[in-house]
């Protein structure tokens, strides 16, 4: 049982301000609750401008955005899609829901993201067999961009659509640009634990105006232009409401401050824990800025004196939420039949990896409380 006198510290709680209230109040005052509305239009324009994409469609979730991206890139029954294995299930589920099959690929140690060398070998093998995948989904993990340039080169060479799952990486950079803005389509999430939240919601971005226009149509039940309801294809109820978009607009306006606060959390953790034997933090890759959506570390139990799970339970006993690194998709029962390329890196990160509380509203006192508990677990 958690101590009743200890305030719960969550892994990544919402950090809401007055600007969000203003946008939502405007939606109520104008009675423009749904469907769509000025906040949706504004959020799409502002998010597209921030990440450097030409166009954006505001949707009910990042998962919906990925589903539409796959469909609009032509993925369907019988296709294969290459997916980062070290990720949340939402990166892979839409592939199967479209009747396609996942091929999972391992991470590399520089960033914990998709290993381009393994993708290169896979594409070469598939090209030789005459069955190239329909798309590649690269996940930008925990606030850090994957190494994009070699993946773009590979996808261009073999004619494979590149889709970026940047749900966790808003506010990060790759060579000065935003992850999510390089591929045929990119997706972002505004779930309650993300670096900015609209209580839920997601965004599909692309430089392809036709792709985004078609996405908006599919997301609005694929209604054709007509005074009545006319449908020549089947769609979904995926569009974001004007109220939700108002929260997102207010959050986006303070994104840079939220990134700075999370990076400050990371620096304090490094200062307080960095000297402990057997403890290593997720590195920041040379190609960009890590937003530190979550501060993640690995524990060598031999050197540290205890394992990752013991630390997590020690934190939980003091009413502090921490979480293991994602369990790789190739280890999930639902994907047990899916092919896997590599696996040792992501399996090791899951076995030894832990995510510490990282919210942008985390107080210095909270950080010191967490640091003291982790230090107390060391040999």
Automatic annotation (TrEMBL):
Domain of life from the UniProt record:
Bacteria
Q: Does this UniProt record's set of keywords contain Metal-binding?
A: no
Record carries keyword Transferase: yes
Q: Which InterPro entries match?
A: DegT/StrS_aminotransferase (IPR000653), PyrdxlP-dep_Trfase (IPR015424), PyrdxlP-dep_Trfase_major (IPR015421), PyrdxlP-dep_Trfase_small (IPR015422)
Please name the SUPFAM superfamilies in this protein's record: PLP-dependent transferases
Question: In the record, what terms sit under GO molecular function?
Answer: transaminase activity
Q: Which UniProt keywords apply?
A: Aminotransferase, Pyridoxal phosphate, Transferase
* Record family assignment: Belongs to the DegT/DnrJ/EryC1 family.
Q: What is this protein called?
A: Pyridoxal phosphate-dependent aminotransferase
From what organism does this protein derive?
Answer: Lujinxingia sediminis
């Amino acid at each position: 049982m958690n101590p009743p006198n200890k305030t719960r510290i969550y892994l990544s709680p919402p950090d809401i301000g007055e600007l969000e209230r203003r946008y939502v109040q405007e939606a109520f005052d104008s009675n423009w609750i749904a469907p769509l509305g000025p906040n949706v239009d504004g959020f799409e324009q502002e998010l597209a401008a921030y990440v450097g994409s030409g166009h954006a469609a505001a949707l009910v979730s990042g998962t919906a955005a990925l589903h539409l991206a796959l469909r609009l890139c032509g993925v369907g029954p019988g296709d294969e899609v290459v997916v980062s294995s070290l990720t949340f299930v939402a990166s892979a589920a839409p592939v199967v829901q479209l009747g396609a099959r996942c091929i999972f690929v391992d991470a590399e140690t520089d960033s914990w993201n998709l290993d381009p060398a393994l993708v290169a070998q896979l594409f070469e093998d598939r090209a030789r067999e005459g069955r190239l995948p329909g798309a590649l989904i690269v996940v930008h993990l925990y606030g850090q961009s994957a190494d994009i340039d070699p993946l773009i080169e590979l996808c261009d060479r073999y004619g494979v659509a590149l889709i970026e799952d940047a749900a966790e990486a808003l506010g990060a950079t790759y060579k000065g640009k935003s992850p999510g803005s390089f591929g045929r389509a990119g997706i972002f999430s505004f779930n309650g634990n993300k670096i900015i939240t609209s209580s839920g919601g997601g965004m599909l971005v692309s430089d392809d105006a036709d792709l985004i226009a078609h996405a908006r149509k599919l997301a609005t039940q694929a209604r054709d232009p007509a005074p009545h309801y006319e449908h020549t294809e089947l769609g979904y109820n995926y569009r974001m409401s004007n109220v939700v978009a108002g929260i997102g607009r207010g959050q986006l306006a303070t994104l840079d401050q939220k990134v700075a606060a999370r990076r400050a959390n990371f620096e304090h953790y490094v200062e307080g824990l960095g000297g402990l034997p057997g403890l290593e933090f997720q590195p920041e890759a040379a190609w960009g800025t890590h937003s530190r959506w979550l501060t993640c570390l690995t524990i060598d139990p031999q050197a540290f004196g205890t394992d990752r799970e013991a630390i997590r339970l020690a934190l939980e006993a003091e009413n502090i939420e921490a979480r293991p690194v994602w369990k790789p998709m190739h280890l999930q029962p639902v994907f047990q039949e899916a092919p896997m390329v590599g696996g040792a890196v992501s399996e090791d990160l899951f076995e030894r990896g832990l995510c510490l509380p990282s919210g942008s509203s985390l107080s210095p006192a909270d950080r010191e409380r967490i640091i003291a508990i982790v230090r107390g677990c060391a040999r």
